[in-house]
């Protein structure tokens, strides 16, 4: 039996004149993502995207992949039938036979996109519903709370039968709102922050600050793995690994311990901004959450944000750790994030970090460092990795 996915788009429908560009982006994203999974034809008609599932393709893997693509609100996995009552009923009986065998109540719902079809939606539902009720007497018709709803969609070329939609990933197609750089540590919060902004239509590039040998090769591998998991949602996302050891050593040598973390975070933002601009990004994203640690108080964020001009998005700023963890579990990054490899932030952590930093003290301390040269050297030494697409 030939199967198809009918994908219903979300917010892009609202986009008036830009709609065509949005739809093209989404179609392109779906085709590119599915290339890794199976050979299927993808096209669009009247705001519905069709993914035609090939004979031997792994339909479950296709559904799983599509369910992570932003810009899709609903996914119906359906069987294709001829546009005749006989074919529609017969296909429904065959396609939904397990569900028909166990359901105690049912109803039929029909949507007629092709107005040339000679019966109304209600007539189709009544006719096929009556036949099914007669044939499968254990299933009682129930219009309000049926266990099984048999949906027919009659469209231009074919009719389709399915038993209901599942939720898509929502959001806007990746790339429709430009590109931004996510500062990706090995922790729980930053992958979630990246996921959230990608959901708003941003294409991402990831930046990781790496302090070898204070942080190990395993810590870097963990970040690559996180990036690979994220690509199921974000699509292609280069990972820029910045050599950060020298900067940390210089700060430790020349600056007061209580300012260490803030000065380090200011370096991260400066370097991230340069790399972001080089990569064509219009913003930075971090996983900061207000008050979570000393460097995430409001005054601390003012000090770290002050070094860059690009907008800094902090999508988890108002979320509790528990809420962030819930998303991390849903997107599959949590188990990797909690692996015990240290992050460069935990190396040289001051015993008494300053939570109410004074800008003049920071500026004073930075005079002891050749900031521009250190930034340029780090940017030049940055390695670019292309994380593999990872279907979960
Ligand atoms: P996370 O769970 O994302 O690591 P965190 O609670 O550990 O966050 P911090 O270590 O203070 O918080 O880092 C705050 C943000 O700074 C991170 O969410 C991330 O965006 C960025 N960041 C921190 N360390 C690094 C790093 N080594 N490489 C890239 N970005 C980093
Ligand atoms: Mg961290």
Describe this structure in words.
By secondary structure, this protein is of the alpha/beta class. Helices cover 40% and strands 20% of the residues. The strands form two sheets. Strands 1, 2, 3, 4, 5, 6, 7, 8 and 9 form a nine-stranded mixed beta sheet that branches. It is elongated and about 85 Å long. The chain starts with a strand and ends in a 7-residue tail after the last strand. The model has no long low-confidence stretch (mean pLDDT 93). Bound molecules: adenosine-5'-triphosphate (ATP) and magnesium ion (MG).
CATH class of the largest domain: Alpha Beta
Order of helices and strands: EHEEHEHHEHEEEEEHEHEHHEHEHHHHE
State the separation between the terminal residues, measured CA to CA: 26 Å
* Estimated helix fraction: 25-40%
Determine the mean pLDDT.
93
Structure class: alpha/beta
CATH topology type of the largest domain = Rossmann fold
The major β-sheet equals: 9 strands, mixed
Large-scale geometry: elongated
The hetero molecules present are:
adenosine-5'-triphosphate, magnesium ion
Share of residues in strands: 15-25%
Given as residue ranges, the uncertain stretches (5+ residues, pLDDT < 50) are: none
Number of individual domains: 2
Secondary structure tally: strands = 15
Identify the CATH homologous superfamily of the largest domain.
HUPs
Rg, rounded, reads: 26 Å
């Amino acid at each position: 039996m030939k199967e198809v996915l009918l994908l219903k788009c979300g917010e892009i429908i609202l986009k008036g004149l830009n709609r065509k560009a949005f739809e093209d982006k989404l179609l392109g994203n779906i085709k590119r993502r599915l290339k890794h999974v199976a050979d299927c034809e993808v096209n669009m008609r009247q705001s519905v995207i069709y993914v035609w599932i090939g004979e031997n393709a792994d339909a479950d893997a296709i559904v799983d992949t599509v369910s992570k693509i932003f810009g899709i609100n609903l996914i119906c996995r359906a069987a294709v039938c001829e546009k005749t009552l006989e074919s529609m009923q017969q296909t429904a009986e065959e396609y939904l036979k397990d569900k028909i065998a166990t359901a105690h109540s049912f109803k039929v719902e029909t949507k007629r996109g092709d107005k040339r079809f000679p019966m109304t939606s209600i007539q189709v539902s009544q006719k096929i519903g009556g036949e099914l009720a007669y044939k499968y007497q254990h299933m009682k018709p129930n219009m309000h709370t049926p266990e099984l709803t048999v949906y027919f969609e009659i469209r231009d070329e074919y009719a389709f039968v399915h038993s209901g939609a599942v939720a898509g990933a929502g959001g806007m197609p990746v790339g429709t709102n430009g590109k931004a750089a996510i500062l990706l540590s090995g922790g729980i919060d930053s992958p979630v922050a990246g996921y959230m902004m990608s959901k708003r239509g941003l294409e991402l590039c990831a930046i990781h600050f790496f302090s070898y040998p204070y942080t190990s090769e395993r810590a870097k591998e963990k970040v690559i793995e996180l990036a690979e998991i994220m690509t199921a949602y974000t699509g292609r996302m280069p990972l820029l690994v910045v050599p950060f050891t020298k900067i940390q050593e210089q700060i430790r040598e020349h600056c007061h311990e209580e300012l260490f973390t803030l000065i380090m975070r200011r370096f991260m933002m400066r370097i991230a901004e340069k790399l972001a601009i080089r990569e064509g990004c219009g913003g930075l994203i971090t996983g900061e959450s207000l008050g979570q640690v000393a460097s995430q108080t409001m005054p601390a964020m003012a000090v770290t944000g002050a070094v860059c001009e690009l907008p800094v998005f902090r999508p988890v700023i108002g979320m509790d750790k528990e809420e962030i963890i819930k998303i991390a579990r849903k997107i599959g990054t949590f188990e990797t994030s909690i692996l015990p490899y240290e992050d460069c932030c935990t190396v040289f952590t001051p015993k008494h970090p300053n939570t109410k930093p004074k800008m003049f003290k920071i500026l004073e301390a930075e005079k002891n460092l050749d900031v521009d040269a250190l930034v340029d050297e780090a940017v030049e030494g940055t390695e670019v990795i292309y994380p593999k697409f990872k279907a979960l």
